[in-house]
């Protein structure tokens, strides 16, 4: 399991290690620089060859009549320790025979101590020019461009660098990175973060020069010890290219982890396999009974998708509660899924008298008019506190009085809003999240989801390519559909309904609300990856058998 840290948590871990005497800041900086160089050669082994290329394979005039030309790197260093890492990388590449040019943004005299030491080590080997001097032109024509301007310390806008960032985005867009041997094709490597990005929120800081860019872009981003939140949410996911984490020998103490576990956000990387496995001695009732409410005639597809999801994910029984006028429509579409006529709140209350029903999904295409009384019946305090997923109309119906909904919710509920639904229920939180950030750490989707879960008193799953799941006690995780898990085909009608069904089915199987939401979200993306392009919502539950097989269930 990967924990995603904030900049402050990273600094605390680093400080604790330094204070304990097990390592110095200078050693950490050296290891960080080594990690970057290692990552570069792992990504582009052709750069790890001798000290440079042979005569230009493209035969470009610049290289005619030359036997060997060293690889060329441009290293852009900033005013903090990120710049310090840059000076280390410059030195290590120089030692390998590279031609390295270094540019500084800021004043050498003001560098923090460790960065200053590495600046001086570099100046024994080569020059340092101001970043405004030709850095951009040089950047276009080198083999490797290192962005060591700002890392986890970015706290505000960088208007002076907007044009440089715009050029870097062009370099990333214009050039395929393999092979690198063509003239003027820089591979761009960001140290820790593409500069300008806030490490806690992944957001950059817009400023008035809107035609330029607010943060840098890279082919790969090399971070240290553990990735940070900002690598997986916000604007950064478009900028990092690919995130490579390098160990620099830091070990947070057991005590540190114990006292911080509620503040640490985790990245979902696997399902809870053991919990997903069905027990051999269990009958269908042992795997739980899910109920999904449908909308009226002509509006039953969403609930059918959810029901199919609940059944495929392993609920023993799934029943659709259907208004009388829609029964024929639903009956013609379902087979293993059962049906019960439920027209109104009284019918639902009566249906829920069956205590074997142990998970409920309410909201998909339910209809805004019907939603309020049905939600009230579903969450009726007279009933047992039954695990309940509230999605779509069950959320939007309370736009005018979210507190009325919050008053009914209990700790076994899961809310699954997309951005629009989130804004209806939590308008003030959404406003904070959408405000243009001016200083760091900027308010993030993780902050917003945690605040919403606390207010609602239950698990909130805030959808998107970066789905954030939070519990009222602060536990939080991110299900990322970025980088190697990019799944843009999930942005298709009904895909959220299937997710709601997955959660409901897992709740019926006995998962706790946080575990159900996490596992469902992870499986949802796995299904999309398994199917690939062309995916529509109906395909998602049908991939579960293959996904489960891969998990060894
Ligand atoms: N922690 C660790 O374990 C390890 C950390 N390591 C490395 O250190 C990096 C963090 O270093 P860092 O804290 O010095 O921050 P960094 O990103 O260099 O920038 C801070 C400087 O920028 C300034 N500044 C900020 N915004 C600005 C703006 N808009 N415009 C102008 N200035 C601005 C800010 O100044 P101030 O806000 O005080 O004015 C400060 O001077 C981290 O990313 C990693 O690469 C590794 O060596 C391995 C171990
Ligand atoms: N670009 C994307 N990449 C990955 N997943 C996405 C993307 N866009 C949306 N999703 C996921 O698809 C689902 C869409 O849900 P939702 O917006 O409720 O759609 P619907 O109401 O049509 O079912 C959510 O699970 C969301 O996380
Ligand atoms: K950087």
From TrEMBL:
<keyword id="KW-0520">NAD</keyword>
<dbReference type="InterPro" id="IPR017953">
    <property type="entry name" value="Carbohydrate_kinase_pred_CS"/>
</dbReference>
<comment type="function">
    <text>Bifunctional enzyme that catalyzes the epimerization of the S- and R-forms of NAD(P)HX and the dehydration of the S-form of NAD(P)HX at the expense of ADP, which is converted to AMP. This allows the repair of both epimers of NAD(P)HX, a damaged form of NAD(P)H that is a result of enzymatic or heat-dependent hydration.</text>
</comment>
<keyword id="KW-0479">Metal-binding</keyword>
<dbReference type="Pfam" id="PF03853">
    <property type="entry name" value="YjeF_N"/>
</dbReference>
<keyword id="KW-0413">Isomerase</keyword>
<dbReference type="GO" id="GO:0052856">
    <property type="term" value="F:NAD(P)HX epimerase activity"/>
</dbReference>
<feature type="binding site">
    <location>
        <begin position="463"/>
        <end position="467"/>
    </location>
    <ligand>
        <name>AMP</name>
    </ligand>
</feature>
<comment type="function">
    <text>Catalyzes the dehydration of the S-form of NAD(P)HX at the expense of ADP, which is converted to AMP. Together with NAD(P)HX epimerase, which catalyzes the epimerization of the S- and R-forms, the enzyme allows the repair of both epimers of NAD(P)HX, a damaged form of NAD(P)H that is a result of enzymatic or heat-dependent hydration.</text>
</comment>
<feature type="binding site">
    <location>
        <position position="302"/>
    </location>
    <ligand>
        <name>(6S)-NADPHX</name>
    </ligand>
</feature>
<comment type="similarity">
    <text>In the N-terminal section; belongs to the NnrE/AIBP family.</text>
</comment>
<comment type="subunit">
    <text>Homotetramer.</text>
</comment>
<feature type="binding site">
    <location>
        <begin position="151"/>
        <end position="157"/>
    </location>
    <ligand>
        <name>(6S)-NADPHX</name>
    </ligand>
</feature>
<feature type="binding site">
    <location>
        <position position="418"/>
    </location>
    <ligand>
        <name>(6S)-NADPHX</name>
    </ligand>
</feature>
<dbReference type="GO" id="GO:0052855">
    <property type="term" value="F:ADP-dependent NAD(P)H-hydrate dehydratase activity"/>
</dbReference>
<dbReference type="GO" id="GO:0110051">
    <property type="term" value="P:metabolite repair"/>
</dbReference>
<keyword id="KW-0456">Lyase</keyword>
<feature type="domain" description="YjeF N-terminal">
    <location>
        <begin position="10"/>
        <end position="256"/>
    </location>
</feature>
<feature type="binding site">
    <location>
        <position position="192"/>
    </location>
    <ligand>
        <name>(6S)-NADPHX</name>
    </ligand>
</feature>
<feature type="binding site">
    <location>
        <position position="147"/>
    </location>
    <ligand>
        <name>K(+)</name>
    </ligand>
</feature>
<feature type="binding site">
    <location>
        <position position="82"/>
    </location>
    <ligand>
        <name>K(+)</name>
    </ligand>
</feature>
<keyword id="KW-0067">ATP-binding</keyword>
<dbReference type="GO" id="GO:0046496">
    <property type="term" value="P:nicotinamide nucleotide metabolic process"/>
</dbReference>
<protein>
    <recommendedName>
        <fullName>Bifunctional NAD(P)H-hydrate repair enzyme</fullName>
        <ecNumber>4.2.1.136</ecNumber>
        <ecNumber>5.1.99.6</ecNumber>
    </recommendedName>
</protein>
<keyword id="KW-0547">Nucleotide-binding</keyword>
<feature type="domain" description="YjeF C-terminal">
    <location>
        <begin position="267"/>
        <end position="551"/>
    </location>
</feature>
<keyword id="KW-0511">Multifunctional enzyme</keyword>
<dbReference type="GO" id="GO:0046872">
    <property type="term" value="F:metal ion binding"/>
</dbReference>
<feature type="binding site">
    <location>
        <position position="497"/>
    </location>
    <ligand>
        <name>(6S)-NADPHX</name>
    </ligand>
</feature>
<dbReference type="InterPro" id="IPR000631">
    <property type="entry name" value="CARKD"/>
</dbReference>
<feature type="binding site">
    <location>
        <position position="496"/>
    </location>
    <ligand>
        <name>AMP</name>
    </ligand>
</feature>
<feature type="binding site">
    <location>
        <begin position="81"/>
        <end position="85"/>
    </location>
    <ligand>
        <name>(6S)-NADPHX</name>
    </ligand>
</feature>
<dbReference type="InterPro" id="IPR004443">
    <property type="entry name" value="YjeF_N_dom"/>
</dbReference>
<keyword id="KW-0630">Potassium</keyword>
<comment type="similarity">
    <text>In the C-terminal section; belongs to the NnrD/CARKD family.</text>
</comment>
<dbReference type="Pfam" id="PF01256">
    <property type="entry name" value="Carb_kinase"/>
</dbReference>
<dbReference type="InterPro" id="IPR029056">
    <property type="entry name" value="Ribokinase-like"/>
</dbReference>
<dbReference type="InterPro" id="IPR036652">
    <property type="entry name" value="YjeF_N_dom_sf"/>
</dbReference>
<dbReference type="InterPro" id="IPR030677">
    <property type="entry name" value="Nnr"/>
</dbReference>
<feature type="binding site">
    <location>
        <position position="195"/>
    </location>
    <ligand>
        <name>K(+)</name>
    </ligand>
</feature>
<dbReference type="GO" id="GO:0005524">
    <property type="term" value="F:ATP binding"/>
</dbReference>
<keyword id="KW-0521">NADP</keyword>
């Amino acid at each position: 399991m990967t924990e995603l840290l904030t900049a402050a948590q990273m600094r605390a871990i680093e400080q604790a290690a330094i204070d304990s005497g097990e390592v110095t800041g200078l050693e950490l900086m050296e290891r960080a620089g080594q990690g970057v160089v290692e990552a570069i050669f792992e990504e582009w082994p052709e750069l790890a060859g001798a000290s440079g290329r042979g005569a230009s394979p493209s035969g470009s005039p610049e290289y005619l009549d030359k036997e060997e030309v060293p690889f060329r790197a441009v290293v852009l260093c900033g005013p903090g320790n990120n710049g310090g890492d840059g000076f280390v990388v410059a030195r290590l590449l120089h030692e390998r025979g590279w031609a390295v040019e270094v540019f500084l943004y800021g004043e050498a005299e003001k560098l923090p101590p460790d960065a200053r030491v590495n600046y001086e080590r570099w100046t024994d080997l080569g020059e340092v020019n101001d970043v405004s001097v030709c850095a951009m032109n040089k950047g276009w024509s080198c083999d490797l461009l290192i962005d060591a301007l700002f890392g986890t310390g970015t706290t505000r806008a960088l208007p002076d660098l907007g044009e440089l960032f715009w050029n870097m985005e062009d370099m990333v867009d214009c050039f395929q990175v393999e092979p690198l041997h063509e003239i003027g094709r820089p591979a761009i490597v960001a140290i820790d973060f593409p500069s300008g990005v806030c490490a806690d929120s992944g957001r950059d800081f817009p400023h008035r020069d809107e035609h330029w860019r607010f943060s840098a872009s890279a082919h790969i981003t090399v971070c240290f010890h553990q990735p940070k939140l900002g690598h997986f949410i916000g604007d950064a996911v478009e900028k990092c290219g690919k995130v490579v984490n390098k160990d620099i020998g830091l070990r947070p103490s057991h005590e540190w982890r114990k006292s911080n576990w509620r503040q640490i956000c985790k990245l979902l990387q696997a399902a809870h396999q053991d919990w997903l496995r069905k027990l051999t001695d269990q009958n269908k009732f042992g795997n739980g009974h899910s109920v999904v409410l449908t909308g009226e005639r002509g509006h039953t597809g969403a609930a059918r998708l959810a029901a199919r999801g609940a059944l495929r994910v392993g609920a023993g029984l799934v029943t659709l509660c259907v208004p009388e006028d829609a029964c024929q429509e639903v009956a013609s579409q379902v087979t293993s899924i059962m049906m019960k006529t439920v027209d109104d709140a009284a019918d639902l209350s009566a249906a829920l008298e069956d205590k074997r029903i142990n998970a409920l999904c309410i909201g998909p295409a339910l209809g805004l008019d019907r939603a309020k009384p049905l939600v009230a019946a579903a969450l009726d305090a007279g009933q047992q506190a039954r695990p309940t997923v509230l999605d779509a109309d069950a959320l939007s119906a309370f736009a005018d009085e979210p507190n009325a909904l919050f008053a009914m919710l209990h700790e076994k509920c899961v809310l699954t809003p997309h951005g629009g639904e989130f804004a209806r229920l939590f308008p003030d939180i959404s406003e904070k999240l959408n405000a243009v950030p001016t200083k760091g750490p900027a308010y993030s989707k993780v902050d917003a989801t945690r605040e919403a879960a606390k207010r609602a008193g239950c698990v909130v799953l805030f959808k998107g390519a970066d789905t954030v799941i939070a519990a009222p006690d602060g536990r939080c995780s991110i299900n990322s559909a970025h980088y190697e898990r990019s799944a843009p085909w999930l942005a298709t009608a009904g895909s959220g309904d299937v997710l709601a069904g997955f959660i409901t089915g897992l709740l019926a199987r006995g998962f706790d609300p946080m575990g159900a939401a996490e596992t469902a979200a992870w499986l949802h993306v796995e299904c999309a990856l398994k199917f690939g392009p062309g995916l529509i919502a109906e395909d998602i539950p049908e991939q579960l058998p293959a996904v489960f097989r891969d998990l060894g269930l």
